[in-house]
Structure prediction request, 166 residues.
Amino acid sequence: MERSAQRLGRALVVIVDDRAAHGEVDDTAGPLVTELLEEAGFIVDGTVVVHADTVAIRNALNTAVIGGADLVITVGGTGVSPRDVTPDATAGVLDRPIPGIGEALRSSGLAAGAVDAGISRGLVGVSGSTLVVNLAGSRSAVRDGMATLSALVPHVIDELSGLNES
Prediction:
């Protein structure tokens, strides 16, 4: 996601974590994603922490889309346990999926030795003019995922804003 001093747009981070939503643990992924997004040139509107609940996740995503975010990164809830519902909630919000980016995230995670990347059901797609990306919840998954996204996200955002029209 590297460009000179040019801003890539507005981003919102959605953390899906029951314990953080209850205040039982501090959210450590949100500050990391925010830092990486800001380094890449995004203005981060904030971090929202929600329960692993389809309605709560969908509401957070819809609020970001309606609010004009260019990018929404969700963190957590992408696995196969019954509480991992982020992809299910995301599917209900997406207008157009971008499966290649989700596959790239899983592939790079596996290549980096993150076995849990292979069971991630995370989705990537477009809702309105907002790019929505599901990342797994570990800090290593966040770092790896953001590195994988670095070359892809600026191109998608340019496409969505009409800057890359043929």
Remarks:
- The two ends are 22 Å apart (CA to CA).
